[in-house]
Amino acid sequence: MKLIGSYTSPYVRKISVMLLEKGIDFDFVNDSPWADDTQVPHFNPLGKVPALIADDGEIWFDSPVIAAYLDTLPGGTPLLPADPAAALRVRRLEALADGVTDAAVALVLEKRREADKQDEAWIVRQRGVLNRGLDALEQYAASHRDLNGETLNLADIAVACALGYINFRRVAPNWCVERPTLIALVERLFQRESFARTTPP
């Protein structure tokens, strides 16, 4: 199994953590979709990472789809509940965490543009998305239902990868203000070997 992606991508990190937690052997191919010589479009026509080449040669792309595929494989720790309704609730929180990540990535890309070309209205909009998403995740984490429970699941991983990216890119330095449950959650998860091994360089 091969995982195509970038060490700094939070979406790739989510899949890397999942593979490590499930004990699935894989080779990591570091390939940034932004590089001039990138091979990513050969694996994903959308030119995005991650892309996963399964042992049978089939290629999977888009991190939620890859995550769903990995949880269908035999063996390893399940990261989605067996009950379909419970699994759907976890997937909803994965989508919320990925949406926070999307907003953070949008802010990073916009800030890379020349100052006079940056769209302030777009920046304000993405900050609003990010903060509303984090507020909602704080509430879910505090409820200990589908997130921040006794058993690690896909929602936990997605949230930790989103917050790890926010910290890495320093998108919202004050995100932790009045969000103590999320702080405690990521501090606990970042101690796991799977997260330590996938920390962005």
Automatic annotation (TrEMBL):
Residues 83-201 form the GST C-terminal domain. Keywords: Transferase. The keyword Plastid does not apply. The keyword Transferase applies. It comes from the Bacteria. Residues 1-78 form the GST N-terminal domain. One of its GO terms (biological process) is L-phenylalanine catabolic process. This is Glutathione S-transferase. It comes from Chimaeribacter californicus. The lineage of its organism: Bacteria, Pseudomonadati, Pseudomonadota, Gammaproteobacteria, Enterobacterales.
